[in-house]
User: Fold this.
Amino acid sequence: MLLEKFNPVIPAGDDGFSAEEAGLWTLRKNQIIHHYLRVFTGTMKRKFNYLVYLDLFSGSGLKRIDKSQFTYGSPVLALDDSNAFSKYIFCERDPANFDALRVRVNKYYRNKNVVVFNGDPNRMIDRIEYYIPDSTKKHKVSTFCIVDPFSLDIEFETIRLLSEIGVNFLFLIALPWKEKNEYKRCLNEERELLNAFLGMPFSEVLNDGQVNSNEVFFRNLVKSYHQNLKSLGYMASGSFYKIEESDLSVPFFFAGYYSSTRDTRKIHSEVLKKVVQQVRLFD
Assistant:
């Protein structure tokens, strides 16, 4: 196994396969993912017979922080969880990252039940659902899905379809914007992508004239998305976290947990006891 004890940085060199470039703030995000995995599996394994881990934007399993430091991707954090899931389903669009993830899984986790898909998760929901067992009274199944696109490339319709089979979600929302007023491009050239992300026209959230900065755009985007997920019947808990040491023009990311179980707030509150200070961007 790669991860004997949680440490967000690997003090080792490149293993020769693809690794995504990442900022230092990814270490904080990894801490949050790690604790959600621990609390979720620790809570749900007592109530369910079979736990499924689903990652819609898996990456390669390894991220490069700088020339000498590497941090784990979410697939490795999940595979190394001591309260192990019964099955792991990874989706990755980039062919190089897909190949690297598949090699790492085969090298370090051959004893795990893992499925790896290469492609756009928005176009493979039928394939994903095929690999998630039906939940019955005698064999209860619970699925934990991480959605961390670092973009707006997840369609709300995809989430709605997964909600119909009772998937629990951890959303990590951040925008890779570095320039001032990049929200204007999103409101214009990328309007169709924005509307698909929200599952509704952005005009129902705000008039374009009310948006005057990247931060105002981001805050209202997440607030609306949060409410839309709750409209699917989910109980919801989420927090914003400040991104330190970054050149991103929106220096925050959002981590939100969504579930139809009564344990939603308990799981979120347990994570908050263990992670860095969160900030409030909306009530």
Observations:
- The chain is about 35% helix and 20% strand.
- The radius of gyration is 18 Å.
- The chain has one domain: 20-272.
